[in-house]
Amino acid sequence: MTELPRNIILTGDAATRLRELPAATVDCVITSPPYYALRNYGHDDQLGLEATVDEWVAGLMPVFRELARVVKPTGSVWLNLGDSFSRHARYGAAPKGLLLAPERLVLALSGAGWLVRNKVVWAKTNPMPSSIQDRLTLTYEVVYFLARSPRYFFDLDAIREPHRSGGGKAAAKADHARPTYRGPLAASNEGLARERPPGQPGHPLGKNPGDVWQLPASNYRGGHFATFPPRLTQRPLLATCPEAVCTACGQGWKRQYTVRRLWSAKDQEATTVREAGEFIRCNCDAPTVPGVVLDPFFGTGTVGAVACENRRDYLGIELNPHYVQLAEERIKKACGSSDELQACPA
Ligand SMILES: C[S@@+](CC[C@H](N)C(=O)[O-])C[C@H]1O[C@@H](n2cnc3c(N)ncnc32)[C@H](O)[C@@H]1O
Predict the structure, then answer these.
(1) Does ligand 1 come within 6 angstroms of the Cβ of 218?
(2) CATH number corresponding to 8-161+209-243+290-342
(3) 49 exposed, middle or buried (CB, 10 Å; 0-12, 13-18, 19+)?
(4) Which tens digit of pLDDT belongs to each residue from 231-288?
(5) How does pLDDT run across 328-338, given as a tens digit for each residue?
(6) Residue 50 Cβ < 6 Å to ligand 1
(7) 222: CA distance to ligand 1 center in Å?
(8) Of all protein residues, whose CA lies closest to atom 27 belonging to ligand 1?
(9) 36 CB less than 6 Å from ligand 1?
(10) Which of 76, 93, 147, 201 could be a cystine partner for 86, CB 3.0 to 4.6 Å?
């Protein structure tokens, strides 16, 4: 296969189907593999039901070896993971102990050359209630953001959010109050002062959304119990899958954004509206194609539906043909503007 197939779902095992794909062709991956020992997806070849948590990690490594090959050097991976509690020492932790499955996997990936750039906390606004009496209820999952190299495509302006703090004197005072002692790996905030115009709370286009995302779990009611909420995939997509990629030089184009302040006489309040403008282009004068997002554990195709809504191309891999059929129906509906996906704001 010389060309990457686009906007289709490949049925079969993730690692096996990934081996058919050409190298360095995928812009970003957004995926949620089966968590360890939590679900049964009804197929003999499924991942997730290994005898131990370390075997689960070992089972996912061939998928990530292939992802390392098919992702462009400027590409990245968003990896959503959940954890489970052991019921017997044979699973890999003492009974009742958290297995730390996400940590085990991400350490293995870091050792295999992946650059771990963020650990995002998806704080669920509607977590599952629990009757447990001797520990806290689980209310979040993690989404790791991994890159192949230190320089990768990331469009922060596409995902900036309105500032909440007032800025001005208060912000300047807070900057001043920072301790002067810093260890060798402490973050520097020097850039913040540069991007904050006098009297403004921060960057004129809005703030970095940060690494705690408050979102409800999915309300998808279509015969699959572990679907992504569309909004969990939209922010990663907008940041790391270019809307247009030059076919000559391969550069991903970003849009120019502007902000307008609108005054509401009714609320006696000013609001800021962000508008996407023209592309910042390369000089090639060649055609462009949309960026491609890959999900090797496609399930019911949330990533495909959100890609299509946002004018990106997708490629899915899914083992269970029943889910493939559900995903195809869902994407068709989304591209014909489904209510569920239209509801998700940029
Ligand atoms: C957590 S779900 C993904 C759900 C998806 N994000 C969505 O929004 O619908 C994991 C999916 O991986 C699939 N799966 C399990 N083992 C697989 C394998 N070896 N190759 C490809 N897909 C697999 C399961 O059938 C399941 O649909």
Answers:
(1) no
(2) 3.40.50.150
(3) middle
(4) 999 999 999 999 999 999 999 999 999 988 778 787 787 777 889 999 999 999 999 9
(5) 999 999 887 44
(6) no
(7) 15
(8) 299
(9) no
(10) 93
